[in-house]
Amino acid sequence: MPLNSSNMQTESEHLFEEIKKYDFYPESMTRIAGEINNVAFFPGGRGTFDNSEYISDKPIMIVGQDFDSFKNFERSRNAGGENIDKNPTWKNIRELLKNCEINPSDCFFTNAILGARNQIRNTGKSPAFSDEKFLAYCKDFFLEVLEIQKPKLILVLGMQVARFFSTFESLSSWAEIKTFNQADERHLSVQKQVILSPNFETTLVLLVHPSFRKLTVKYRRFRHYIAEDAEIEMIKFAME
After folding, report:
1. 1-35 residue pLDDT tens
2. N or C, which terminus of the chain has less Cβ within 10 Å?
3. What is the CATH number of domain 23-238?
4. Domain locations in the chain?
């Protein structure tokens, strides 16, 4: 899926076109490909806070599990975008970025698993994890996105996303962790110089999912920092 500059496509257009070529979604998921025209996580929208159609100039990638339920996707599409002031994920991740002095416009907001859930429940383990063929496609697609963006830093939102990343050989240690306490105690929450593809290495930070941030961040530990300060220091350390 190399990006061909001669066809004058933007990077977003190219990625959405590639998504539309794959038809073998499990019954639990519905394909979505940029139908939300304003701010929204990819692939529901472009995944850029400034609504840019390019991601190669974004040094930071922020990765969720999957987009949401299809019902909520339709709601955001009809509203012209996700409600970044009321949506817990957007509200809390923006607060964290502010505390780390990161401009949201420097980030690409995306998901490890393509599509939206065909169920009301939009939290917990994605139903897509039960389909190995589809997960393999999502991983291949994710690698192609990495090749385009080449992020210096990847913020991993939640334990389920860590499970997705654990299928990479360089992050196999994440397959052994079940809780954030384990990740912190084993010093696995920040992973530097990780090779995810042959010609590319990056740094990853495992964070609690922002939708549950207020409930779970209090348990985080990093060096002598605890709770919110621990995750802030993880990110600052990763950016050194």
Report:
1. 445 544 689 999 999 999 999 999 999 999 999 99
2. C
3. 3.40.470.10
4. 23-238
